[in-house]
Amino acid sequence: MTRPRRAVVIGSLGYSLVNFRLDLMRRLQANGYAVLALAAGIDAATAAVLEAEGIAWQEIPLERTGTSPLRDLASLRAIWAVLRQQRPELVLAYTMKPVLYGCLAAQLAGVPRRYALFTGLGYGFMEARPRGRRRRVRAVAVLLHRLALRRLTAAFCYNSADRADIRRFRLIPPQVPLHDVPGSGVDTARFAPAPLPAGPQQFLFAGRLLRSKGLEVLAAAARILRQKQLSFRLQVLGGADSNPDAIDPQQLARWQAEGLLEQAGFTRDVRPWLQGCSVFVLPTRLREGIPRSILEAMASGRAVITTDAPGCGETLGGAAGLTVPQNDPEALAAAMEAFIRTPALARRMGAAARDRACRVYDVHRVNHLLMQHMGIEPAAAPGAPAAALHPPGLAAL
Q: What is the C-alpha separation between 318 and 320, in angstroms, rounded?
């Protein structure tokens, strides 16, 4: 009996396997691979989705933000043990710790093809000339990447800033191919446009409730608009976060009591919230890669306000929304005011956002690029519609 080809996809958190990589794993299956998904924190809901798709899964010990060398070595050993047992043909790892320890474990286990997907370089690379702890974090990150990715098959990145720094800091060897892909992609059928809501402009933030996501700047911008007695709603969607950078829940409550925003809690399905808003706002200062939240808003036909952080403003292509400087509440307030005073702007930019999402960021286009660069699928004809990029059998899934 012929042993099936096996592929392993490694992420940092179980929920991300379904939220960001389900279509990719489906595509690997459609190309004849048996897929095993590895991550920390695979909850019952995630496991049920994976099992329904015929995707094997295994939980691994991995601390997404921890800095303990012993725990990281335990992660490396656990991934190595799985790969030694499963003997996959290829490993694709995404986000920092899975890239480091997943690709190194794959090399040690003798996996023939090893791919790293850089979804954003993160904390240590936020500043051109970091100081103190951030400088030390970057130095350690650079060293670990150079050690772990010495024999990588190929790598992928989302934006020009990440590409420049990957090469500048030699995070991968110069001879390793580094391919550009437009983010994780978005299912433009699942995130479909809906009519804009009537009444005052409704702004939506959806994401992790972190200072680095710009929530303090957003609250300050809302205060400026309230002082001008402008009519609008601002909803903040997201759950509590254990990250040291998290916004204190009491601070969120104070902002709500002040009338600046409405806390909407956490949801696994952002689509109703996108359909209920007029404009999506992400005032981040993080190196986001290409934010999935922006892609989902664009696919839903919603204009976007975001910052000039790497991977954010450039995603809009100039017509899908407005880009403001990081950490600038006055500029953010001015952008929000433009939509409040000119309601037609949200409709015009929302239509442009939907068009760009379908042309550039459709998940089937993105996954075809990944398959092409991994040698699994041939190149598509230039300008082929997204529907033509389904491999045989995938359209029925």
A: 6
**What stretches of 16-136 adopt beta strand conformation (E)?**
33-40, 56-59, 90-94, 113-118
User: What does each C-alpha distance from 184 to 88, 192, 296, 307 come to in angstroms?
Assistant: 23, 17, 11, 19
pLDDT of 123-171, one tens digit each?
677 776 777 877 888 898 899 999 999 999 999 999 999 999 999 999 9
The CATH number of the structural domain formed by 5-185+362-389 is: 3.40.50.2000
* 3-state DSSP assignment of residue 206: strand
Read off the pTM.
0.88
Q: Select the CATH number that applies to the domain covering 201-359 from these four: 3.40.50.2000, 3.10.350.10, 3.40.50.300, 3.40.50.720.
A: 3.40.50.2000
The dihedral through the CA atoms of 233, 318, 274, 327 has a sign that is: negative
Q: How confident is the model at residue 57 (pLDDT cuts 50, 70, 90)?
A: very high
Q: What CA–CA distance (Å, rounded) separates 283 from 328?
A: 9
Give Cα 78 distance to the centre of its chain.
25
Q: In what order do the strands lie in the sheet with 154-157?
A: 56-59, 33-40, 5-13, 90-94, 113-118, 154-157, 178-180
> Across-strand partners of 93?
10, 116
